[in-house]
Amino acid sequence: MTLRGRVLSWSIGLTVLLIGVVIVSAGLGPVRIDSITVALATLNALVVPSGVAFGSWTIPVIGWPVPVPGLEYTEVFAFETHGPHQTIVADIRLPRIALAATVGFGLAAAGTVMQGFFRNPLADPSIIGVSSGAAAGAVAAIAFPALVPLSSVHLSAFIGALVTAFLVYAIATDGGRTPVATLLLAGVAIQAFLGALISYMLVHSGDDLRQAVVWMMGHLNNTTWEDVRFALPVALLGVLVLGAYARDLNVLLLGEEDAHHLGVDVERTKIYLLALASIVTAAGVAVAGVIGFVGLVVPHVMRLIVGPDHRILLPTSALAGASFLVVTDTIARAGPAEVPVGIITAFVGVPFFLFLLVRREVHSL
To answer: Which of 31, 216, 266, 298 sits at a 20 to 30 Å CA gap from 116?
Structure first.
């Protein structure tokens, strides 16, 4: 099978898996809803956005509403569902599931790029301090809202992440070159500093301590469609552009000198890869907090399944990451007491990663 055929077949298969996971997840919770009702409620949310009124006349058979001037306007859905179930699925569960898929999609793709960029199996999206920068921005907005000019925690976290990534890059760059080892060390140093800063803010956060701690654990509770609209365009566009650099990322695995001889503009490519991966990571962390192991474990698993070629590894890891985070978030909210999803990803990711280490499946790239 050709490379294009493999990419298409794997992408279709993983997309079908993601749709199935979404339908099952949307039916689970304190109120159990069957899969058919979930599917119909989802279609209603897509065809007729909740809260929009249409005319009472509908197209026969398929039942699609058509606005007609002069008729009394009421809320009409294309498919008949139980009212409370429609609200639960469309307004409560679907936004959370969509955000989980979006964040998992972006973090897994960014982790794939970082592992290839650093040629290090332990690399993940937070390796240059992006997650720490987002955490510092979010904690500052939560604990000291009067001192932070940004009223939005999401925006404060997003800007904190990007500023940190830029700072690490500026520190590591000398004479137009950015050695990977120096970049890694600069990231470790900045993460240590931000960790101390976050600890200081937490100590002085007062009544906001719990909110700040929960945010840092990674969470998806109280998600709205606004959160999805904040992260989804960044994740989709960022991963799409990263895919255009998949071939160059393959060449970089041979070493920077060999990549240069093969026609790759090494420094420019490194800038683009770092910037795009940082932006995608920042968008995910800004809306969901610090969620670990998605960008570390998922790329390793998909590398074992589809191979190391980033032209297929990148899109498949992104789709697998979306399903992985939807599943783990479903576990996080399915118990008697909801826990932050970052705890579940660690509980699932650590044993699996150790299993890969014992099997010697994790090695230098």
So the answer is: 216
The overall pTM is greater than 0.70:
yes
Percent of the chain with pLDDT over 90: 52
Residue 319: CB atoms within 10 Å: 27
Contact status, residue 136 vs residue 198, Cβ threshold 8 Å? yes
Residue 336: Cβ-neighbour burial (10 angstroms; 0-12, 13-18, 19+): exposed
Tell me how many degrees the CA angle 350-351-357 measures, rounded to the nearest 5: 90
Is residue 41 in a domain? no
200-205-208-209 Cα dihedral, nearest 10 degrees: 40
Give the confidence band of 337 by pLDDT, cuts at 50, 70, 90. confident
b/e 116-133 (16+ beta carbons within 10 angstroms → b): bbbeebebbbbbbbbbbb
pLDDT in tens, 263-310: 888 889 999 999 999 999 999 999 999 998 999 999 999 998 999 999
**Residue 318 belongs to a domain with what CATH number?**
1.10.3470.10
Partners of 55 in beta bridges = 73
Say how many domains are in the chain. Answer: 1
Residue-wise pLDDT for 22-36, tens only, equals 999 999 888 888 888
One-character DSSP codes across 107-157 = HHHHHHHHHHHHT-TT--TTTTSHHHHHHHHHHHHHH-TTT-S---HHHHH
Contact assessment for residue 156 and residue 289, using Cβ atoms and an 8 Å cutoff: no
Task: Write down the pLDDT at residue 74.
Answer: 46
Residue 63 resides in a domain: no
Residue 88 placed within a domain: yes
In contact, 344 and 333? CB cutoff 8 Å: no
For residue 1, give both structure tokens: 């099978």
Could you tell me if residue 73 is inside a domain? no
Which structural domain, as residue segments, surrounds residue 236?
A: 3-33+82-358
- Give one word for 206, left, alpha or beta, with left for phi > 0 and alpha for psi -120 to 50: left
